[in-house]
Amino acid sequence: MEATGSSPVLSTLVKYYNKHYNIYITSKNNMANFFKKLSGIDDKEKNLDEQEQYMEDELLDEEDLPSGEWLGGDYDEGQLSIDVFQNPNSIIVKSTIAGVKPDDIDISINNDMLTIRGRREIQEQISEENYLIKECYWGGFSRSIILPVEVEVEKVEASLDNGVLTVILPKAKSAKQFSIKVREK
Fold this sequence. Notes:
Layout: H1 8-21, H2 28-39, H3 41-58, E1 78-79, E2 83-86, E3 90-96, E4 105-110, E5 113-120, E6 139-146, E7 157-161, E8 164-170
Parallel strand pairs: 1-6
Antiparallel strand pairs: 2-3, 3-8, 4-5, 5-6, 7-8
């Protein structure tokens, strides 16, 4: 196949494979299949199909899986969405946490990891068949992030304003960098 407007490299490649591997490209569809085989995509698709079949045949069904009871608690947590940004003096973390009281939020710093945990409780009991749309998450939530710089833990501030949590983490004064000269013996 000599594609109109195709590059000389592509034409040369097609001619080479036609001649040496008896692969004859006669249409754009054949060319797509040719490039799939050349790049190994065709094999990857077959491998994915085999993996999916294995998962369907060999792995446990969802109802056969043990519940979270073996963990000794309620571990069904939602992940908290956050924005993290910085200015010259601080790392700022913001998150929308509507419907949560400040006393129901736990913020901790362990080494270089910030963790925000909380629980959003539904105020009224509604049976499942009465829901038309159910998108809100009720229950425990958490989010942990690794801080990119050291912070002054004693000066961290957190506030909740109109359902938006803001955590301000002042950056620690950077330690002086020392240059060590290597001497020859």
